[in-house]
Batch of 2 targets.
Target 1
Amino acid sequence: MAEKLAENLYTIPVPLPGNPLKNLNVYLLAGERNLLIDTGFHLDACRDALLAGLRELRVDMDRTDIFLTHLHSDHTGLAPDIAGPNTRIFIGEKDLSHMPGSHSDFSWADSDRRFAAEGFPWPLLRELVERNPAQGLSPVPYDDYIPVSDGQVFSYGGHRFQAIWTPGHTPGHMILWEEETGICILGDHVLFDITPNVTRWHGVTDSLGDYLHALEQVRTLPVTLPLPAHRAVHAAFQDRCDALIAHHGRRCREVLRILRDGGSMTAWNIASGMTWRIRARNWAEFPTPQKWFAVGEAMAHLDHLIALGLVARQPSKPFVTYHLSQEGIHGIDSLPGV
Ligand SMILES: [Zn+2]
């Protein structure tokens, strides 16, 4: 069932079957021309729920544009399918190269090689080809995405939203901010009962540093209606930004302690020593997709600690390893930003 949130602003709940995020909050700005924000996986259950909501709101897709907050398939999966002949599909310019289509320079084979170099076992990477939702539920190839740049304005249904580039969760993640009303459509930049995943992205030096910087930037906005892409809102916006910043500070300190005790280690081994909020007794029992996300998060934290000068990387063969730098040995309790 679609729900009205403000004048000409609605939300449509789209289930994400088998995914711990449970559902996606799709948003719609309704007017002469509509703007639909995010879509759901390329999956029948998502398509049925989204189309039912669009019917209920009497949305004509030929008079509707689509804004994708970021490249992840739970947001982008259905966009090319539901687009009408006149639909424009917008996505942050830095996410475009990851989207299936002729502009794509992303390859899972390259990604797998990079994970293998960090100690991720090859048999598990092969298993993921079947099981990782990002690899199966993506949108069909599409060549006409329109790249969005920081500050671009979107005027629909009497609203005037500004896109703000908030890299970290993905390189090109965008939120939509309306100064006049204090409404902020957050994508996955700020979620309230889940911590947004921050991983290493090829070509990005410090994803976590970018993420923390973008949080510092948006935490001062006078947001009155925060609209996350998943689940509900449980805290004041600024408090939640602060809690996320503090969370990553604790995680960085945990990585430093693991390296202090373990010496020189791979990202795979570091991830296995970190604490994760998941129902599994130990690392061996972690489902393989969760291991993949965990190693990605460990790498993002390592990159950030390298950028801060606290950790050093040794590109030794066959695996890349990490160890504390001189500053890191003394830096565990003096980590900035926490
Ligand atoms: Zn996401």
Target 2
Amino acid sequence: MTGINRKAQQRDVEIISNKKVGAYHHMVFAAGEMAAFARPGNFVAISVGGPNSSMILRRAFAIYRASDRGQYGGTIELVVAPHGQGSKWLTSLDIHDRVNMVGPLGTHFGIPTEPVSALLVGGGYGSAPLFGLAEVLKERGCRVDMVLGASVAGKIYAPLEGKRSVNSLTVTTEDGSAGIKGRVTDVLPSLIEKNQSEIIYSCGPMGMLQAVEEVSQRHQTMHLCAVEESMACGIGICMTCVLPVKDEKGIIKMTRSCIDGPVMDGERVIWGSSRAIPEGTWGAP
Ligand SMILES: Cc1cc2nc3c(=O)[nH]c(=O)nc-3n(C[C@H](O)[C@H](O)[C@H](O)COP(=O)(O)OP(=O)(O)OC[C@H]3O[C@@H](n4cnc5c(N)ncnc54)[C@H](O)[C@@H]3O)c2cc1C
Ligand code: FES
């Protein structure tokens, strides 16, 4: 049985920067030694609303970047979309305010042992963990191409320093307000062929991940994706985040995406089950 990420810890962390970037807030937290254990794909869970809040569930955020050096003894950076009550509360906070953070949580992206050609695909704030991943892949000698998609230009998160860690960056928007008009999957086949991509890493809405998996199967590339199932506890207790996933023997099990994910092998996920349980599925492992 799997459990919570062994490196996870709970801390009150100070906000040291909170800047609005397009539709998002780039937030930096003095997270101490938690930062040293974070790997691309891991996430943190943050208490929202303050001590008397009725918002009892923590909110999950993918780690955009983690650094274990510098004057704060370790920093964790997030890209937050002010979406509902909790994320709006978080992004309204000021420098020096503190929040309670649990992390790093979940699985991380596997890194190939040999230099390969990698294609990174992000939808909306789903680009967040991909820049840290690109840096690690580059250090391994990989070629790194990136595709970022969103409905409109303001929802593309592509900071300047992030662009330097990739060989090519392609942007798609559904309304054509930036880059190529269309969806990320429209450009994937030509990029896979041109760059001889051997592995796809993706993060974004579930519909996009499913579409990326379909392209990946047609081109016989490996696909690791970070799923975004709704999470309540974030630490493997409540079963809110389960989705059907095939194990190595082909048995479908309802799998907790907070501890056995968010990073999963796209080929093993039973996509499009819309919270229904496919026939023959076992309970949670
Ligand atoms: C692994 C992961 C990584 C994420 N990374 C990012 C990121 O980098 N940036 C970002 O902006 N957002 C990210 N999100 C989404 C982020 O957690 C949401 O923005 C947040 O949950 C919305 O919170 P809210 O308070 O603004 O919205 P609200 O609508 O007020 O609250 C949503 C709350 O209800 C819970 N919830 C919703 N539906 C269900 C359900 N069916 N069953 C149980 N609980 C439910 C949610 O988990 C959340 O706690 C991520 C989510 C996950 C799971
Ligand atoms: S969110 Fe509670 S088990 Fe995954």
